[in-house]
Design goal:
Largest sheet: 2 strands, antiparallel
Structural class: mainly alpha
Distance between the termini: 32 Å
Shape: elongated
Strand content: 5-15%
Number of domains: 1
Number of helices: 2
């Protein structure tokens, strides 16, 4: 999956994980600041942004 999270996307991810337990869904997002080639897993991006937000505040 590519892009950012929405309520519908979160629900679809949960349904996919439930229905296809033998497969892994990787959700990626584009981020020049945090990604190696401009792409990073969405969960990692959320963690890094949360850490940076704590450092600034």
């Amino acid at each position: 999956m590519k892009g950012y999270s929405t309520q519908q996307g979160e629900l679809r991810k949960k349904l996919f994980d439930y229905k296809y337990q033998d497969k892994k869904l990787i959700w990626i997002a584009k981020s020049k600041k945090y990604g190696v080639d401009g792409w990073i897993e969405y969960s990692e991006l959320k963690k890094k942004r949360k850490e940076n937000k704590k450092k600034v505040a």
